[in-house]
Specification:
17 strands, mainly beta, Mannose-Binding Protein A, Chain A, Hepatocyte Growth Factor
């Protein structure tokens, strides 16, 4: 496993309390900020909101002003800051969380959203320092993948390392044994099980800690977690919960 130097950076903001930013030297999928007054939020650079998802646009001098404005509006779930050539910024406020928004690439923009304003069963930073989001309802496999892609820097659960698989077991137990998708598939009958990034399942540490993997459905299939540390395959059109995870520290995953 690669070693990454990580830091905890505390930034003071007038009238908004302190926040702690979990940062890594490289490889972060997003930036996660723990705020003692304004709550926890996620930052994704290079993204802005589509016009249809913006309820108000205000010209301001700083990102912190925009952040304070969105936080003070109880209906504001997210915002985008777009830098102008004159040094001012366009503060774009949204009623929608990322899972119901359309995000647009923009190199001059930064997108922010509040962790507790994303609807779902849960959304939290676990002991392995990864963020985990659980969908509100069951979804078919492709819809679960699409949902995770809506959350900047997230992907459908792909616990290739034993530590992340153990977190998946923890989530399974915490949710009362709700079954959820892994981004692990067998696309063609009697071929290798592949993670979503095309890494062979048997080449990853998780394969040595899974109690049993059951393949009893004709391909194409994906796998979901079941009782007794078992992964079982099922048709892609079946409905299970989506668990998305993100990597705020740039750790191996």
């Amino acid at each position: 496993m690669k070693v990454i130097n990580t830091t905890m950076v505390v930034v003071m903001m007038v009238g908004m309390g302190a926040w702690t930013t979990l940062q890594a030297m490289a490889g972060q999928s997003i930036t996660y900020v723990k705020g003692d007054t304004i709550g926890n939020f996620i930052i994704a650079k290079g993204l802005t909101l589509s016009d249809k998802d913006v309820y108000n646009t205000i010209t301001m001098k700083s990102q912190s002003q925009c952040l304070s404005t969105c936080w003070s509006h109880i209906v504001c779930c997210a915002m985008a800051v777009v830098e102008s050539e004159d040094g001012m910024i366009q503060c774009r406020l949204s009623l929608e969380s990322p899972i119901t928004s359309t995000l647009v690439n923009n190199t001059n923009a930064t997108y922010y959203y509040w962790q507790d304003r994303v609807p779902g069963l849960s959304y939290e930073l676990k002991a392995d320092c990864f963020l985990y989001y659980i969908s509100s309802t069951g979804l078919d496999f492709n819809s679960a993948k699409t949902l995770c892609q809506k959350l900047p820097g997230h992907r459908l659960l792909m616990p290739k390392l034993a530590a992340h698989y153990n977190t998946a077991l923890e989530i399974f137990n915490e949710t009362g044994n709700k079954q959820f998708w892994f981004d692990l598939q067998m696309a063609v009958e009697k071929t290798a099980y592949l993670w979503g990034d095309q890494t062979p399942y048997l080449s990853t540490p998780t394969s040595s800690v899974v109690g049993k993997i059951v393949q009893d459905t004709p391909a194409p299939v994906a796998f979901r977690m079941q009782l007794y540390n078992v992964l079982n395959d099922i048709s892609l059109t079946s409905v299970y919960y989506g668990v998305c995870h993100a990597n705020p520290l740039g750790l191996e995953w």
